């Protein structure tokens, strides 16, 4: 695969439009763009509608009132079991994993200045998969140990990429190229681990590698929910600095931003989000690649648009999971197959469109 190099004028000032909202003392100001607000509101409405359909439809249909009573503890019958044991943990896991992957991809794409800058392409997802496969094939560990192995594998891959770039700075195109090389190496390692597994271990490993939200319990939802609750606010807090870094190193430093430290911290946040998400569900491809770009186009944002990206990722994964549950019932189709098919088509379109831009 050839990396798409998105060259841009490093220090060209960006023209922004919107309304500046300030506190009375003037200590805090915020640029509010009407298009971004409208896109965020539309995504929130879509998200709520998706949650409603997910919780009320299926093999056992429920009314909105029954769902509400189950969620508030007023119903202890079958509705309580369906909502609080079967549907809600899976739904919350999907929302948190989608948001985590989308923000991870948005940060990497902003840092690299490259639409291919996502944990799927750079190799962090394959690193998490390698850690999980090692636990399955070599350690014969439990589900909790598999999740821990995936987390360690993703972080170790990020460390390896960092060491390969040591002394050269975190430059966008170099990060993508090194990441693609590391990803290819890890893919070979994963294939080797599967060939060394027993038949039962190979089945278990292959099922995990597809990426699924099936049989997700409150323990999974709590784990990814805690990671998102800690990491997403940090990413949102640093989004302004990330926007300045996009303007170019010279401009960002002139505005008082420590470019190297900002890139490093955001890279750690991005890797951690992708690793936690993969540890919970297995590798779910292309959400991190597609969601940030769709959100940025929808909001027409000149910056990274982390909040719309998080909502877009949550919506995309929840809708994908809803589709595989309802359209292919009673077959138990993993959500990773749906995102992989749609994401593959998106990747082909992205490569073709970028190739046309480079020729122009």
Structure description:
- The protein has 360 residues and is an all-alpha fold.
- The chain contains 15 helices and two strands.
- Strands 1-2 form a two-stranded antiparallel ribbon.
- The longest helix is centred in the first third of the chain and has 35 residues.
- The protein is globular and about 65 Å long.
- The two termini are 21 Å apart.
Question: In summary, what is this structure?
Answer:
The chain is an all-alpha fold and 360 residues long. The protein is 72% helix and 2% strand. The two termini are 21 Å apart.
The proportion of residues in beta strands is under 5%
Average pLDDT: 83
Count the DSSP helices. Answer: 15
Could you say which overall geometry the principal axes of the C-alpha atoms support?
globular
Rounded Rg? 21 Å
Spatially, the strands of the biggest sheet line up as 1-2
Oligomer: single chain
Question: Could you state the order of secondary-structure elements as H and E?
Answer: EEHHHHHHHHHHHHHHH
Largest sheet, strands/sense/barrel: 2 strands, antiparallel
What is the terminal separation in angstroms?
A: 21 Å
Q: Could you give the count of β-strands? A: 2
Structural category is mainly alpha
Spans of 5+ residues with little confidence (pLDDT < 50)? 1-16
Q: Approximately how much helix is present in the residues?
A: over 70%
């Amino acid at each position: 695969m050839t990396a798409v190099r998105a060259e841009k004028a490093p220090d060209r000032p960006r023209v922004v439009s919107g309304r500046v909202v300030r506190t009375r003392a003037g200590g805090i100001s915020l640029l509010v763009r009407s298009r971004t607000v409208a896109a965020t509101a539309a995504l929130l409405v879509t998200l709520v509608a998706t949650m409603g359909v997910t919780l009320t439809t299926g093999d056992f249909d429920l009314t909105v009132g029954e769902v509400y009573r189950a969620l508030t503890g007023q119903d202890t019958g079958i509705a309580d079991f369906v909502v609080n044991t079967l549907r809600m943990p899976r739904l919350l896991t999907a929302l948190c994993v989608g948001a985590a992957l989308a923000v991870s991809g948005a940060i990497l794409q902003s840092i690299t200045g490259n639409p291919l800058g996502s944990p799927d392409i750079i190799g962090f997802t394959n690193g998490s998969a390698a850690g999980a496969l090692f636990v399955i094939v070599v350690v014969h560990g439990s589900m909790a140990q598999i999740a821990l192995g995936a987390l360690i594998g993703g972080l170790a891959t990020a460390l390896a990429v960092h060491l390969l770039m040591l002394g050269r700075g975190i430059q966008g195109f170099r990060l993508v190229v090194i990441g693609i090389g590391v990803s290819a190496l890890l893919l070979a390692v994963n294939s080797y681990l599967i060939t060394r597994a027993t038949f039962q271990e190979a089945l278990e490993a292959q099922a995990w590698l597809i990426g699924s939200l099936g049989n997700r319990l409150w323990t999974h939802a709590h784990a990814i929910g805690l990671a998102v609750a800690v990491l997403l606010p940090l990413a949102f807090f640093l989004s302004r600095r990330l926007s300045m870094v996009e303007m170019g190193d010279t401009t960002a430093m002139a505005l008082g931003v420590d470019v190297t430290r900002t890139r490093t911290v955001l890279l750690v946040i991005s890797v951690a989000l992708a690793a936690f998400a993969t540890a919970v569900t297995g590798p779910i491809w292309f959400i991190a690649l597609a969601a940030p770009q769709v959100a940025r186009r929808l909001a027409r944002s000149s910056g990274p648009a982390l909040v719309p990206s998080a909502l877009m990722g949550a919506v995309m994964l929840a809708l994908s999971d809803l589709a595989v549950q309802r359209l292919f019932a009673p077959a138990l189709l993993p959500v990773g197959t749906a995102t992989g098919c749609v994401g593959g088509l998106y990747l082909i379109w992205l490569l073709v469109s970028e190739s046309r831009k480079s020729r122009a």
